[in-house]
Design a protein that fits this description.
The structure holds 2 protein chains of 2 kinds. Chain A is α/β, with parallel strands linked by helices. Helix content of chain A is 31%, strand content 23%. Helix content of chain B is 73%, strand content 0%.
């Protein structure tokens, strides 16, 4: 059971509490959703429950936080972690081991479970999360969705009293999301108290018993998901309750329009592995194309091939009718991958944008940077250090930097993962605007809400082999 | 990225983690204790062959490049110091720098195989069995674990620079030294700090603490490969000591 009584928490060196007077309870067998716009205090709440605040981050806590009847303030972090498991939004931040098998069995090994028992549990858990083929893999080589599954599998190895899931579906495909919903129901039946922090509401309607909406560290609504009417959701930047899965309804190609980018006879394989793309041909027109496929289907690999980050075994690349070398693709194509920390270099948000414009050879950098600040609602953050921004703000900034390049084709890998409803609409609006300016926008996403909002066409992976009579795939 | 379902084929995966830890510990002691350039060269050469066995040529190349950059920066500062304080210039001769630099490379050669071919839990267990306190063995394990993550970060930062259109080459380094330094080191520094933090948090949240018990089974017995590795290590150490005894000074070529 998770119990918070009148909890107020202030971070060190801050005079304003991150959470104020919070009280709620998650009983055994119950699941509660906590949602709200970026920066409302969701992550702090997670840190309080799993003990990172104040045991790791310091700060001042008023009130009591109890897990299974034991006060977090009086317990050591390692003891708290034996009772409550946390799945982080960025799965990489929770891995301690390097290999998949090692990571999944790590908690059991730390608890001193007998190796034979660990082997049995490992086999069952890997089967449950479809991870058997990857047990001997290195975690860094997995797709983000697969990493998420490894994180969840490692938590499932040992019985827990409470479980915290932070944006658990951010990198999962819709099918894996439904599987996760079933897993949560099973855990509820086993008596686990579950706290879910997520922006996506549609998949949780039948899963959670209660929803808590936070704003500026305070509870603004406690109730059930259907109670969140559209006016309330609009006011607090929440996402939709119902989402149509349009992935299979989208056409593979629009009827008119010249191709902006054309790739023929594309083949690729990773070292010592069979080909994952064989003689595929693709065509990208003006508009927004969604790239879909299961976790690990090769969506990011395709993006890396289109940009030349991975070298194709074979393939011809054309942009606006002109054949180019694969290694020159980056001159015409911008890509936003899911690692914003690696892409920020300057002292302020404004400098970051201006530097991106300069690197792209754009003149009038200041005006263009101001315009991008406006499009992505970053004006208030213009003088902040890019690395001090929240995850969602960084995401918007790196997309703005990609826009600065004024590319013919832009590829975005899960651009709305972890974004609230208001920011999702903002990104969607910016992408639509870019598309209307004659660009090809490729969006790798599992976010059905984004697909519904912006996608004109679809590209489904894995790619079929090109045949003589078959036209271009997209 | 696509996960590889093909296991790493390095021969070192079959060598017991205790042997690899012993090799690392002995190499660090020997490379500090030995002052002869011949002996250092010998240690460097054999440790480099050991490193090649991890079968990660790109990783080795990038690691060496990073080390060379760090050494070049150290030399640059040394030269500036020598310019203002000529007394300091004596230490800037090649013969004085060769041995310490060789020591650093030898350490790199033995640490990388430990980090890339060892199971973390085995490292933790071995460190625990040495009765080391928690405050020593956890950071030690974090350091070993940090290396693969950091090399992965370097790769991603390099790609991000390419994506953004920033060019890093000798020309840009010369005409925009500050910007180039910023582009390379800001994300590197941030990632290094974050990775250290994240690994510490991950360890704590997995319940790793001073009372964590080691795996409840006896460690596996040494195989023929382990005994061969131990014997070879002993032979190499003896050879290095002989070189130190018979050629105690640095190379005559460098002495001239």
């Amino acid at each position: 059971m998770i119990e918070l009584k009148n909890v107020t928490y202030t971070y060190p060196h801050s005079d304003r509490p991150a959470l104020s007077n919070l009280s709620f309870m998650v009983r055994p067998g119950e699941a509660i959703l906590v949602t709200g716009v970026s920066g409302c205090g969701k992550s702090t709440l997670i840190r309080l429950i799993n003990g990172l605040c104040p045991h790791y981050y310091g700060g001042n806590v008023e009130g009591t936080i109890c897990i299974d009847g034991k006060d977090n303030m009086k317990e050591k972090l390692c003891d708290i972690s034996h009772r409550v498991g946390t799945l982080f939004q960025n799965p990489e931040s929770q891995f301690f081991a390097l290999g998949v098998e090692e990571e999944i069995s790590f908690i059991s090994e730390c608890k001193g479970v007998h190796p034979k028992e660990i082997q049995t549990k490992l086999s069952q858990t890997a089967e449950r999360f479809n991870l058997k083929p990857f047990l001997k893999s290195i975690i860094h080589e997995l797709s983000q969705g697969q990493k998420q599954k490894v994180g969840l599998a490692s938590l499932m190895m040992e019985p827990l009293k409470a479980l915290i899931l932070d944006e658990p579906t951010g990198n999962l495909d819709p099918e894996a999301t439904l599987e996760l919903a079933e897993e949560i129901k099973k855990l509820k039946a086993q008596g686990v108290a579950i706290l879910i922090v997520d922006h996506r509401l549609y998949w949780l309607k039948d899963v959670v018993d209660k929803v808590i909406v936070l704003e500026k560290g305070k509870v603004v609504r406690e109730g059930i998901i259907p109670d969140l009417d559209s006016e309330f959701r609009e006011k607090y930047g929440l996402r939709k309750l119902e989402v149509t899965d349009k992935r299979l309804l989208l056409p593979v190609k629009t009827s008119s329009g010249k191709p902006i980018m054309k790739i023929s006879k594309l083949s690729f394989s990773y070292p010592r592995q069979p080909e994952i793309i064989t003689d595929a041909s693709l065509e990208f027109q003006q508009g927004i194309c969604g790239i879909f496929g299961d976790n690990g289907a090769g969506k990011t690999t395709l993006a890396r091939l289109i940009t030349g980050l991975n070298k194709a075994k074979s393939g011809t690349f054309q942009v606006k009718g002109k054949t180019i070398r694969q290694k020159d693709c980056l001159k015409h194509v911008a890509v936003v991958l899911q690692n914003s920390d690696h892409q920020l270099y300057m002292r302020t948000v404004f400098e970051e944008l201006r530097a991106s414009l300069e690197a792209a050879g754009c003149k009038g950098g200041n005006d263009a940077a101001e315009e991008l600040l406006g499009i992505f609602d970053l004006q208030e953050l213009r003088d902040r250090h890019p690395h001090s921004l929240s995850g969602g703000q960084k995401q918007r900034l790196v997309i703005a930097c990609a826009f600065a390049k004024k590319p013919d084709v832009i590829i975005l890998d899960e651009p709305t993962s972890g974004l609230d409803g208001a920011n999702l609409k903002r990104i969607a609006g910016a992408l639509k605007k870019l598309s209307s300016e004659g660009k090809a926008v490729l969006v790798i996403t599992h976010d059905l809400e984004l697909v519904d909002l912006i996608c004109d066409t679809a590209l489904h992976l894995p790619l079929p082999v090109q045949t003589a009579n078959q036209p271009f795939i997209n | 990225m696509q996960a590889s379902s093909v296991p790493n084929l390095s021969l070192l995966n079959a060598v017991d983690i205790r042997v690899k830890m012993m090799i690392t510990a002995l190499a660090s002691v020997m490379t500090v204790a030995i002052s002869s350039l011949y002996a250092q060269c010998f240690l460097f050469a054999v440790s480099f062959l050991y490193l090649l066995m991890i079968r990660r040529p790109k990783l080795i190349l990038v690691s060496y490049l990073l080390f060379l950059i760090m050494m070049a920066i150290a030399c640059g500062f040394g030269l500036v110091l020598a310019h203002f304080l000529p007394m300091m210039g004596k230490g800037m001769e090649l013969k004085s720098l060769a041995v310490p630099f060789m020591r650093a490379f030898t350490m790199l050669n033995v640490v990388l195989p430990l980090a890339f071919t060892g199971r973390l839990q085995q490292i933790l267990n071995s460190l625990q069995k040495l009765k080391l306190p928690f405050v020593i063995y956890l950071p030690a394990a974090v350091i070993v674990r940090f290396i693969p993550t950091f090399t992965n970060d370097i790769k991603q930062i390099w790609e991000s620079l390419k994506i953004r259109g920033y060019r890093i080459n000798p020309w840009t380094m010369t005409i925009h030294p500050f910007q180039t330094t910023r582009l390379l080191f800001t994300p590197l520094l941030i990632r290094a700090l974050k990775t250290g933090d994240e690994l510490g948090i991950a360890a704590e949240l997995k319940g790793l603490n001073a009372n964590t018990s080691a795996i409840k089974k006896d460690p596996p017995s040494f195989t023929k490969k382990d005994y061969a590795a131990v014997s070879l290590t002993a032979a190499i150490l003896v050879a290095a000591i002989i070189l130190q005894i018979y050629f105690p000074n640095t190379s005559p070529v460098l002495m001239k």
